[in-house]
Amino acid sequence: MSKASKHPGPREALRRWDNEGGAPRSGRPLPGSAPVGDQGEHHELYYFNIRTAGGVIEDPEGSAHPDLQAAREQALSEARRIVAEGDRQGEDRRSWSFEIMDRANRPVLTIRFSDLGRAAGR
After folding, report:
1. What residues contact 22, with CB distance under 8 A and at least 6 apart?
2. C-beta neighbour count of 68 within 10 angstroms
3. For the chain, what is the HEC assignment?
4. Where does the pLDDT of residue 117 fall: very low under 50, low under 70, confident under 90, or very high at 90 and above?
5. Residue 118: per-residue pLDDT
6. Which burial class, exposed, middle or buried, applies to 94 when counting CB atoms under 10 A from its CB (0-12, 13-18, 19+)?
7. pLDDT value for 68
């Protein structure tokens, strides 16, 4: 009687990674479960790194969006939340920015938190 392993081996992890649309990210864990649409429509994986005065906070998992515009809207919403949280804590985070990377780790868009007032009208 064989006993099934609770932890997948490297081949199973890579197969799952390929099936979920992950991308190689040096030193990062494999994405757990990227959200996909109800009807199985195609979603792209984007990473939302945050640049602060102290350096870059990397997004280890990323999130799936149907296109760059949807990723932009998510970044704007999240940036507003981060700035508001900083305001409550007495910390000005308006100099921060999101550096949105595609699944190949190429920069595709930068959202500056200082531009949030201008982006709201779009």
Report:
1. 30, 31, 34, 45, 103
2. 14
3. CCCCCCCCCHHHHHHHHHHCCCCCCCCCCCCCCCCCCCCCCCCEEEEEEEEECCEEECCCCCEEECCHHHHHHHHHHHHHHHHHHHHHCCCCCCCCEEEEECCCCCEEEEEEHHHHHHHCCC
4. confident
5. 58
6. middle
7. 95
